[in-house]
Prior knowledge:
By secondary structure, this protein is α+β, with helices and mostly antiparallel strands.
Amino acid sequence: MSNIRVCLREQISRTYKSLIGIAVVLMAAGCASQLPSAPSNAMTDGYNYIIGPGDAVNIVVWRNPELSMTVPVRPDGKITTPLVEDLLAMGKDPSTLARDIEKALAKFIRDPVVTVIVTGFVGPYSEQVRVIGQAAKPQVLAYKQKMTLLDVMIAVGGMTDFADGNRATILRASENNKQYSVRLKDLVKRGDVSANVEMKPGDVLIIPQSWF
């Protein structure tokens, strides 16, 4: 009889712990569902690409082919070209960098005219889009104007079998780390295009694991 009581106590204890675990999961899901939905349109038309470490920039100096070349932006954000050493490129758009190179070259040649073309796109860390959690290939992506959630999911190869797509969230650094809920499962698995939203520079897409 005592053995039966012990078994009953153990079974009740296991059941109680399971119920607590389910309650925790449901509470977490409820918290996620309380987040506002990500707005469909997020970007403005005034976006300019900002150069970052790892980018390649093609510098063309008119009538001076010996000064024209493609150079990488170093990890410290600077570039080096003939007659111009350690010029900061990070955080500037191509036109601003071109004007800065012109000012530096003006010490050596008369009325330099410079054009800067970005040929390798990485962008500064602050504007890269990061995908973490249950993505097939979690990674960092260079932001592109009008990039959408669907574009991001194609780039990372979709979700794993363990993903809870409709509890995914976007952490938006440009809005003081405000969080938005997104419906990845509806978008990727069911083809519901109404779940597609625009991304912003610096967004972090978090895809949680399903508990069931």
